[in-house]
Design a protein that fits this description.
The longest helix is centred in the middle third of the chain and has 18 residues. The protein has 7 helices and 6 strands. The protein has a single domain, classed as Pnp Oxidase, Chain A, CATH 2.30.110. The radius of gyration is 20 Å and the shape is globular. A 6-stranded antiparallel β-barrel has the order 1-2-3-6-5-4, surrounded by 4 helices. Strand 2 and strand 3 form a beta hairpin. It is α+β, with helices and mostly antiparallel strands. Helix 5 packs antiparallel against helix 6.
Amino acid sequence: MWINPLFEVDALDELRQLLAENSLATLVVESPLRAAHVPILLEDSAEGILLSGHITRSDPVEQRIREEGDALAIFHGPRAYVSAGWYDDPGLPTYNFSVVHLAGTTTMMDEDALREHLTDLVRREEIQKDPKSEGAWEMGATARDRLEKLLPLVSGFWIQVEIAQAKAKMGQNRSADDRDRTRAHLDGAAGLEPREVSARMGAMDDGTGGRCGVTPTIAETQRQKEQ
């Protein structure tokens, strides 16, 4: 994807931030052009960025992955519409958003690796689920039996990333006053995503969530405002 240099951020840092909130990605393959929506994890690797995922064998995307060709994984962060009516300076409406594109070559998992991947996926998702009030669900004997029955119907895969890009368009091209006004409107939104965008904008303004930072939560950003 084309990225205005103002909006370019470190791909691995951005990926970690997005995965902490949501591992669901859009997986794109070609010949023919197809897409699937699957959870994808970042794995520890000494050889660059390595992703792991799984997909049902009944999905045509699985065949292209099995042929060990190229694939593109797209991770979406929060997004929000920004009205030009919120600006002091002249401008046009736009969207603020963040996204990561990771392209690379696929290889297939064997059954043991797939089992480990699925178990790890559940563990990670249970740790970061929201709300957390019920505690982490753990696989019992019944769930493990069900997992074993599903393994022959699912394919696991890795993507060795060769091209990594990340874009965080958060009003960097607007004045400080316009960003403040935009954040004030987004903070009043009923939905969560606009408020998450406001939090990210504030993090980039104060240097804690830019190229190498970590985006604070909405509550943390609110505390910063009150100080």
